[in-house]
From TrEMBL:
Keywords: Oxidoreductase. Belongs to the short-chain dehydrogenases/reductases (SDR) family. Gene3D superfamilies: NAD(P)-binding Rossmann-like Domain (3.40.50.720). One of its GO terms (molecular function) is oxidoreductase activity. It comes from the Bacteria. Residues 287-300 have a biased composition (Gly residues). InterPro entries: NAD(P)-bd_dom_sf, Sc_DH/Rdtase_CS, SDR_fam. The lineage of its organism: Bacteria, Bacillati, Actinomycetota, Actinomycetes, Kitasatosporales. This is Short-chain dehydrogenase. PANTHER family: DEHYDROGENASE/REDUCTASE SDR FAMILY MEMBER 7B, DEHYDROGENASE_REDUCTASE SDR FAMILY MEMBER 7B. The keyword Cytoplasm does not apply. GO terms for cellular component: membrane.
Amino acid sequence: MKVASTPHRSDLDGLSALVTGGSRGLGLLLSARLARRGCRVTMAARDEDELRRGAEWIEERTGVAVSTAVCDVRDLRAVESTVRQADDRHGGLDIVVANAGVIQVAPVASLDSGAFEDAMATIFGGTVNTAMAALPRLRASGAGGRLCLIGSIGGLLAVPHLLPYSCAKAAVAALGEGMRAETAGGDLSVTTVHPGLMRTGSHLQAEFGGRSSKEFAWFSALSGTPVVSMDADRAAERIVRALEKRRTRLVLTPAARAASVAHGVAPATVTRLSGLVARLLPPPPTGGGAAGRAGDGIEQGHGVDRGAPTWTERVRRLGSSLNDRAAHRYNQRIPGPPTSA
């Protein structure tokens, strides 16, 4: 699959861009879209092999070579070094997309404070590290720097069984609004993006707790269902266009926009509806807390034991088929023997 070319010359042509979490999923597609528009792209991620495969994926589909940098966004010194390298390599830094993150799916009764600390360190702390390290260089950009923070609809309203993720993304939303306000009137623009469900194949990288196989089943099926979820490549194109236009805020998918508006108008009603949804999701294992978590474990989606192909697994496969294909396309698969299914 080739990334579609743009029908017009982009004003991003020739600019230098850094994308964190750029080796797979949405970050990979954003890197490819920016490369297609003529940007000199540096992709940053923790896994060197993933980065290599991602760079090959982009060059194969766009004909453009991109640079890579191994970086854990939780480590401020590593982020500062990566930002400096991207600046030195391309003679400046014009665009930074803070996209790195984690997804944890579990009832709150099966979590402890460590899950919240991990989400905040990676999603919010990683975004803060990236933004703060990049700001001086983006301000120095002759083209007028562009900073893009990837939030989530989960940061605009709390989503059941995604509470650590929602809390961290809510902090990203506040950061984006505040930074936009404090940089208003200058050449630097700040764009905060709040996607809804997207078919990126991220269910294989997400972390599942409680009754992990059942949590995996509902999350992978829902995030792969058409209408409810969005094609990831189309989402990447929308985000890059928002960067071109220096938009302040972008909420992706009709369902996410409707939920955001409803929460703003009637937050108590939306919270009650969320409570009803929570009752439909898998309950925590008996005992809850650390005992419940130990009963099934916290594990990534690619390692979840799905057991025999029961009717729930068949339903999951039906709903998740597009997302499973996305995982193959967008570098989400883990090399090695296939997991049980």
